[in-house]
Design a protein that fits this description.
Helix content: 55-70%
Radius of gyration: 25 Å
Largest sheet: 5 strands, mixed
Number of helices: 21
Strand order of the largest sheet: 6-5-7-13-8
Structural class: alpha/beta
Distance between the termini: 86 Å
Oligomer: single chain
Shape: globular
């Protein structure tokens, strides 16, 4: 039985205001539990869903892209064998693999299989339409989280959906957005359950967290993040802790199944071990700062808001100077790092670093407040904990930086962003202007990135479908490449060429693309002669994945920045004929 003041959220017998007496202006009574009119709520959620349709329907016919092809392969397998998580005689990155085990949990692939079974189609349009549910869940969950933590739920929700990272992920079939959607739904339900002391909401949160884990292993972090909220509110007990056994039990059952069937635990990544060398970790931190500064909120707005309070603008000069020095080093040492790319690098890196330093400095301010009189903004502590835990985990544990890896910490970033605006701007008209500018500019950036990504995906489909008419192959056509290019080349009946293969014969064609290539056996390369090239041009200079342009939206292996500007072709395809043996 509680012995504290029942009118104070989180009151316990030890501290009248819980672990920390909340100094937040928001709380259970101003967020998920507030009694707003049903009409206002319905209109707001309708606006969220309309915005989801706005950012997804124009791209619903996007060609399969990046790892979509791998998820599609497993979905086709699961049509016949729903629990099978390995593909026999698979080839990936130029290597022949006798038995390829999936590195993703099964929910995404099983959902794709269900769409294929219901619609009778494995084509792009029905699958993308079926996946609109995930940005919708993301938006609805964000709306309720924003009602809980800010005073401006609708613009906060629209801003999240407009970010390049979320918008581009809404057009793919990979598991990152489904995991994020379920993650955010579990978080919203759990917070509501703690605030309302509702057992059924907590149970539903545990079930949703388990589904999130089955969509992406990163969601195991919920087992750490969700109890942090109830602990900060002084409500960590059996009632709030028991539902979190559901994701633990679900993952444990899946691990036992994996051990029984494959004699191994679930596979988390392609390569073995962790890259924890200092240079590798620093490169991933740099990459994540660049993705944070370039693929989230429009960078000038993001940096400006986090400079509003506590004289943080004083940090700008040293941050920009450090970023400029690093850009100058790359400009002098990397061939594909022109001045325009260097300027973007300084903008993105400075913005990302400023956000990290600003949030961390606020953590210090709040900690000082705790030691002075035990009053602190516990909501801020939870959001900052969520943000930093996921940023650090991604930088330390995942193989490289990419926009889609940011998705788990975008929600707390934007909630903190809105709290900064609401604390730093008192004028209602200025506040509205900042909201409109943030959503509009971020939406334009997200749309431009999505359009460039759409064109890149379509390029590979066009290359594959036009190849026969353009080159009239008489022998076997071999190809070197991955992602959507691989999917569409195999759909045309062309054959995958591994690094070790010596199978091509005189008269065959070998096709290579610029973005994904690997060395071939010297006996093959010695026989190749170039017979033609195709370049995909674009009316837009924006590039999202390009080695020559140093753009790496889906991974810093291909470029340092999430996107850049270039007049170079979007992609290049080279066709070689195999001559007589040398």
């Amino acid at each position: 039985m509680r012995a504290g003041n029942p009118a104070v959220p989180g009151a316990t017998r030890h501290f009248p205001g819980g672990f920390l007496r909340s100094a937040s202006r928001f709380g259970p009574g101003a967020g998920l539990g507030e009694r707003s009119s049903r009409l206002t709520l319905a209109l707001s959620l309708g606006a969220v869903f309309a915005f989801v349709l706005l950012i997804t329907l124009p791209f619903a016919n996007q060609a399969f892209h990046i790892d979509d092809a791998i998820f599609w392969d497993f979905a086709k397998l699961n049509l016949e064998s729903p629990l099978q998580q390995d593909l026999p005689e698979y080839r990936l990155m130029g290597v022949e693999i006798p038995n390829w085990r999936d590195t993703h949990p099964p929910l995404d692939q099983l959902y794709m299989s269900a769409i294929m079974r219901v619609t009778g189609s494995d084509a792009e349009l029905p699958l993308h339409l079926g996946f609109i549910i995930f940005p919708a869940i993301t938006g609805i969950s964000m709306f309720f989280l924003a009602r809980r933590f800010t005073r401006n739920a609708l613009p906060a929700t629209l801003l999240l959906l407009a970010t390049p990272a979320i918008m581009a992920a809404s057009h793919t079939l990979m598991g990152d957005l489904p995991m994020t959607a379920l993650w955010m739904a579990a978080t919203a339900l759990y917070i509501s359950g703690v605030d309302r002391d509702s057992g059924w909401l907590l149970a539903l949160a545990g079930l949703t967290a388990m589904l999130a884990v089955f969509a992406g292993y990163q969601a195991l972090a919920l087992i750490l993040l969700l109890p942090a909220y109830s602990w900060l509110k002084g409500r960590l007990n059996w009632k709030t802790g028991l539902p979190l056994l559901l994701p633990v039990a679900g993952f444990g059952a899946y691990a036992l199944y994996s051990l029984a069937r494959y004699n191994a635990l679930p596979r988390f990544k392609h390569a073995k071990g962790l890259s924890i060398e200092g240079s590798s970790v620093l490169a991933r931190i740099e990459g994540n700062l660049l993705q944070l500064g370039g693929a989230s909120v429009f960078p000038l707005i993001l940096a400006g808001v986090f400079c509003l309070r506590r004289r943080r603008w004083l940090m700008l000069a040293p941050i920009i100077a450090a970023a400029s020095g690093l850009a100058l080093y790359y400009y002098n040492s990397i061939s594909n790092f022109p001045l325009a790319t260097a300027a973007l690098f300084v903008l993105f890196l400075s913005t990302g670093a400023l956000v990290i330093i600003a949030i961390w400095s606020e953590v210090q301010v709040q900690l000082v407040q705790v030691f002075k009189d035990r009053r602190a903004d516990t909501d801020f502590f939870f959001l900052a904990f969520w943000f930093f835990v996921m940023f650090a985990a991604i930088a330390l544990l995942l193989p490289h930086a990419t926009a889609k890896y940011m998705l788990p910490f975008l929600a707390p970033l934007i909630l903190l962003f809105f709290r900064e605006i609401e604390a730093g701007i008192k004028s209602a008209s200025v506040l509205t202007g900042v909201f409109v500018a943030a959503v509009t500019l971020t939406f334009l950036a997200g749309t431009a990135v999505s359009a460039a990504d759409y064109q890149l995906a379509q390029t590979y489909k066009d290359f594959a479908q036009d190849l026969g008419d353009r080159y009239h192959p008489e022998g076997t056509v071999w190809f070197v490449g991955e992602w959507g290019f691989r999917h569409y080349m195999e759909a045309e009946g062309y054959r995958y060429l591994t690094s070790a293969s010596t199978a091509p014969r005189e008269g065959d064609l070998v096709v290579r693309v610029g973005l994904m290539d690997w060395p071939l056996d010297h006996s093959v390369t010695d026989q190749l002669s170039l017979v033609g090239s195709s370049a995909a041009e674009s009316g837009s200079p924006l590039r999202v994945m390009s080695l020559p342009a140093n753009a790496g939206f889906y991974g810093t292996h291909w470029g340092k920045l999430p996107f850049t500007f270039s007049v170079l072709p979007v992609e290049r395809l080279d066709v070689y004929r195999v001559g007589p043996p040398v």
